[in-house]
């Protein structure tokens, strides 16, 4: 793992990895994952939850629409998903969600 002095001078990805060192250590201690695998899992989870709100709404709308969902079902479901994220997005009205998808 990088040293503390590296956080300011290392590339962003290395600094981010350092900021999650405790989580990576916890995962290697409590799961069968090795350090490299745990770091990749943490990076994937961080990337997933770093998706901008607009991209998340468009992606989820497309996924639900492709499974036959109607907008009347989809937009309330997306609103509920947004509020349940670990770092909850700001509350968006159904109208705001529609505007993200349709402009």
Tell me about this structure.
This protein has helices at residues 6-9, 12-19, 21-30, 35-49, 53-66, 71-84, 94-102. It is mainly alpha-helical. The chain folds into two domains: 6-49, no CATH class; 53-102, no CATH class. Helix 3 (21-30) packs across helix 4 (35-49) and helix 5 (53-66) crosses helix 6. The model is unreliable at 1-17 (pLDDT under 50).
- Indicate the radius of gyration in whole angstroms: 18 Å
Number of self-contained structural domains: 2
Query: What is the assembly state of the chains in this entry?
Result: single chain
Terminal-residue CA separation: 44 Å
Q: Poorly predicted ranges (pLDDT <50, ≥5 residues)?
A: 1-17
- The succession of helices and strands, N to C, reads HHHHHHH
The major pleated sheet works out as: none
Q: Look at the structure and give the mean pLDDT.
A: 83
- Overall geometric form: elongated
| Extended strand count | 0
Number of helices: 7
Topology:
Elements: H1 6-9, H2 12-19, H3 21-30, H4 35-49, H5 53-66, H6 71-84, H7 94-102
Helix pairs in contact: 3-4, 5-6
Task: Provide a short characterization of the protein structure.
This protein is mainly alpha-helical.
Index terms:
mainly alpha, 72% helix, 7 helices, 103 residues, 2 domains
């Amino acid at each position: 793992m990088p040293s503390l002095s590296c956080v300011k001078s290392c590339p962003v990805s290395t600094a981010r990895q350092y900021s999650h060192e405790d989580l990576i250590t916890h995962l290697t201690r409590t799961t069968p994952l090795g350090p490299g695998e745990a770091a990749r899992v943490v990076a994937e989870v961080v990337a997933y939850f770093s998706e901008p709100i607009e991209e998340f709404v468009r992606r989820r709308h497309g996924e639900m629409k492709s499974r036959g969902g109607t907008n009347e079902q989809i937009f309330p479901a997306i609103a509920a998903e947004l509020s349940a994220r670990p770092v909850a997005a700001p509350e968006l009205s159904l109208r705001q969600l529609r505007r993200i998808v349709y402009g």
